[in-house]
Amino acid sequence: MWICDVGFGGSPLEPVELADGARTSGSGWEFRLERTVTPPGATAEAREWVLHERRGAGEEWSDLHTFTLDPRYAIDWEVGSHYVSTHPRSPFVRRPVVQRTGPDVRQALYGASWVTTARADGSRRVRELRPREVPEVLGDVFGVELDAADAEALAGVVERLPAEGGPAGVPAD
Question: Which 3-state string (H, E, C) describes 98-125?
């Protein structure tokens, strides 16, 4: 059995075997899947799986997310999807979010904050963009070309973003 992640962001770009200790290193980014210890009284199916990412060149692994093999129903996905796409406190409603993973760097844009993470050492560089720069970076770095009207509209949205403390709400590692 294999798993894939179609929307978490920063996850493996190819399927990973659903096996304890399975590893993948697509485009140089390394990931490991681990099955956790079963809590007392829980069934084997209730165990959590943890997806880890290697940070930098050392042996440091960081947890990305956990999941179980418990059955899910359409309503489980519908409620979560509705929240992240409509709730005013959702980070995906408050600002544009774009990510792109390449062989050596992961690029992310959170509103006007452009974050570059280096694969080799895990270092991060954050650059605050002026609102009018955001459409240009979308095209040059992420391959998302906007026509003049959409670029102007996006710059206007970014200009009206509230200050969120720290670099425009950039997620911490």
Answer: EEEECCCEEEEEECCEEEEEECCCCCEE
